[in-house]
Amino acid sequence: MSNTPMAASPLTRAVLEIDEYVSGLGWDQPARLFALVDTARLRAEQPSLADRLGLTGDEQETAPGLAPALTPIEQEEIPADRPLDEFLATIAWPDAVTGCALTVERLMLPPSAEAQVPQDLDEAGLARWVAEHPERQEVRMTVAVLRDGARESALRLREKDSPTEVLTGSDLVPGLAQALAATFEE
């Protein structure tokens, strides 16, 4: 977590850690899903897994009464032949999972382009239109939610691919955050 701010909340640190990890893999990557677990609990209950993950006990811990440090654990590959929302609807997390995070790459347009969107396009046509638009930008979104409802996101533009250019905020991708939160509903 070399580029992760020390003062950030544990959830923000986890999102930035995931963003940094995925950025090291380059662009044009598939979506990736992560479980978020309490680091201290993981070390206590699963010491061999903690060792494999390189958790030595020196990780940044939080002061008493504050949220615990979180460790992201990448899950199996997300099926590429299935819509992301359908896949997320099939997920149920065990109690040991405190939260989850997802990274996904998408094309986005500036708000000024909304007025230009042709009204008669189906989903595939709209995707083509966006992909061909001269103002399109590629963005990687990392969104995380906790069982208690806390949310955090990190956005990285391909054209500004630098750890110092990552935008963070709790409500940057509300639809995706809601879909992830639904994976904790019973």
Beta-sheet strand percentage?
15-25%
Fraction of residues in helices? 25-40%
Mean pLDDT: 85
From the spread of the alpha carbons, the general shape counts as globular
Strand order in the sheet with the most strands: 2-1-3-4-5-6
Structural class estimated from helices and strands: alpha+beta
Number of strands: 6
Q: What is the chain-wise order of helices and strands?
A: HEHHEHEHEEEH
Straight-line N-to-C gap: 33 Å
Oligomer: single chain
Q: Specify Rg, calculated over alpha carbons.
A: 18 Å
Largest sheet composition: 6 strands, antiparallel
Residue stretches low in confidence (pLDDT < 50, at least 5 long) are none
Count of DSSP H/I helices: 6
Instruction: Give the domain tally.
Output: 1
List the defining traits of the structure above.
186 residues, alpha+beta, 6 helices, 6 strands, globular
Topology diagram in text:
Blueprint (H helix, E strand, L loop, with lengths): L9 H14 L8 E7 H7 L1 H6 L17 E5 L9 H5 L10 E10 L14 H10 L4 E10 L4 E7 L9 E3 L4 H8 L5
Antiparallel strand pairs: 1-2, 1-3, 3-4, 4-5, 5-6
Describe this entry's structure for a reader.
This protein has 186 residues and is α+β, with helices and mostly antiparallel strands. It has one domain. The chain contains six helices and six strands. It has a six-stranded antiparallel beta sheet with strand order 2-1-3-4-5-6. A hairpin with a 4-residue loop joins strand 4 and strand 5 (151-157). The longest helix has 14 residues, at 10-23.
